[in-house]
Amino acid sequence: MNWRNRKTRIAIVLAFAVLAAFVAWRTSTPVEAGNCQAGREEVKDASGKVVEIRRHECG
Question: Would the pLDDT of 54 be above 80?
């Protein structure tokens, strides 16, 4: 194997490793907690009486 092929292979492998590290770093960031709304929800039956109270906490 000559020196030029070795440099090219090392450059390709290094570029792939940098790309893989970047993708892993970006996919490991946590998702924003914008979907959660803290509070309570009242579940009512057909007649309108409250039968259950559910509490939601975002944490």
Answer: yes
